[in-house]
Amino acid sequence: MRAHTTTAPTLPDHKDMIHIVGMYKCGTSWLLHMLAAHPQVVGWREFDAIRAVYAPHRRALALPLAGLDYLRPRPKNDVWIQRREESANRPPQDVFREMFLARGWIPIMGADKQRQIEQFNPQDLSALLEQLLALGDYRLRPSAAPLIDPTRHTDKLGVQSFRHNDLLTLMQAVRDCSQTEQIPTLFFEALRSQTIPGSRIATKAADQLMQLTALKKASPGSRTIAIVRDGRDAAISARHFEHLMRKREAPWRAQNASYLRRLLGWSMRSAKLAEHARRGEITVLRYEDLHSNFTTLCRALFVELGLDATTEIIENVKNATDFATVTQGRIPGESANHQIRKGSSGEWQGALSGSQAALAWKLAGHSLRAFGYTRTGAIDPSSLVLGS
Q1: pLDDT band at residue 2, thresholds of 50, 70 and 90?
Q2: What does the pLDDT read at residue 154?
Q3: Are 153 and 171 in contact (CB under 8 A)?
Q4: 190 near 4, Cβ under 8 Å?
Q5: What pLDDT shows up at residue 232?
Q6: How confident is the model at residue 1 (pLDDT cuts 50, 70, 90)?
Q7: What is the pLDDT of residue 87?
Q8: Is the dihedral of CA 250, 256, 262, 265 positive or negative?
Q9: DSSP string covering 256-296, please?
Q10: How many CA atoms lie within 13 A of 47 on its CB side?
Q11: pLDDT 10s digits, 260-272
């Protein structure tokens, strides 16, 4: 049994960890569910410890400057990537709030509940945890519960999967940590302490791609994978998701942004992802390939990660992650008031006018082309994605 770590280890070995780093509304939840359904892997739902620590610099011209970064020719050095990762460490109390009281692991839906959280006292952690659990109607596992066995857990785990005393220990470690850059390592070590030895652990967070250097430092030896989707579709899904989160009053709800601004955000991240992929620093899958040939790509992914890839395992994973299964009966293409929207590809072709499609290609064509997407919507083979 692994002992729970309360201070960050000097040289952690995270060869058992797999981090899904992006991108937004491109199938990261599907990819996490695939890994969680594998009998060697424990999958943990979204908890963005990296973004809780690193607050990006907000500059008046950040958006147009970012646009120029991917429109102009790439420099040979790392300057443009580093510029996209410019950030400042949040104060410890702000990191704690981001992780446990804001966008983090115990998300509280509803403005009224979020106002109640403002009155909670983080100095009395036992009371705070009980208040949070009651507010969100969560239940933790008993402190004496056995370690998690991936063969018995085939769905994504979350806060309820943590043992009570271990979560308290993590909260105390985060609250009292003066070197905030160590906090992601504390979090990853806490996850490792919940699983039986020999397990692989997969995590996913919305925007870790923008802090990939910090992630690799916090989890050395780990594997990083990403799933990319045609940005013209991703921008449509992003606007739907943001509307849904505002309706539910989620703590992470975003401002209402235009379609083109969402597409630009996709392009910035894709340009960064493409550069890391060219350097062999990250494994990339294409969302559309999973739709068209799930079995082949699933097997390629498992082999790439050193996981068993038998026909029986892949068939079980396919059944567990099927669109109808995870949406309680919907068929692909059927929309609903749900965070999983349609499960289809090529929606942009019917949603955009000819002039809008031309503008979208002009804005994001460089990044779309890098992953094999074409102006018309067809997909060309690309060396930047697994299985090409």
Answers
A1: very low
A2: 86
A3: no
A4: yes
A5: 97
A6: very low
A7: 65
A8: negative
A9: ---HHHHHHHHHHHHHHHHHHHHTT-SEEEEHHHHHH-HHH
A10: 26
A11: 888 988 988 888 8
Tokens of 313: 């395992």
Query: Cα 319–325–329 angle (5° rounding)?
Result: 140
User: Please, which residues have CB within 8 angstroms of residue 217's CB and are 6 or more apart in sequence?
Assistant: 181
Output Rg (C-alpha) for the chain, integer angstroms: 21
State pLDDT tens for residues 279-324: 888 999 999 999 999 999 999 999 999 999 999 999 999 999 988 8
Contact 329, 338 (CB under 8 A): no
- Which pLDDT belongs to residue 180? 92
Quote the tokens at residue 338. Answer: 């749900």
Which DSSP string corresponds to 340-371? S----S-THHHHS-HHHHHHHHHHHHHHHHHT
Q: What are phi and psi of 284, to 5 degrees?
A: -120, 135
> What pLDDT is recorded for position 167?
95
Neighbours of 364 (CB within 10 A): 28
Q: Domain extents for the chain?
A: 17-370
Cα(129)–Cα(171) distance, integer angstroms: 9
Q: Write out pLDDT tens, residues 117-156.
A: 888 888 899 999 999 999 888 899 999 999 999 999 888 8
Sign of CA dihedral 11, 172, 106, 98: negative
CATH of domain 17-370: 3.40.50.300
Contact indicator for 379, 366 with CB cutoff of 8 Å: no
pTM over 0.90: no
| In contact, 367 and 274? CB cutoff 8 Å | yes
Under a CB-based contact definition with an 8 Å cutoff, are residues 254 and 207 in contact?
Answer: no
Query: What's the CA gap between 169 and 156, in Å, rounded?
Result: 22
Bond from prior residue into 171 cis (ω within 30 degrees of 0):
no
87's enclosing H/E stretch is: strand 87-89
Please, are residues 363 and 71 in contact by the beta-carbon 8 Å criterion? no
Give the C-alpha separation, 225 to 212, whole Å: 11
* pLDDT of the residue at 72: 52
Q: Write the CA distances from 137 to 97, 102, 132, integer angstroms.
A: 19, 16, 8
Say how far apart CA 347 and CA 335 lie, in whole Å. Answer: 12
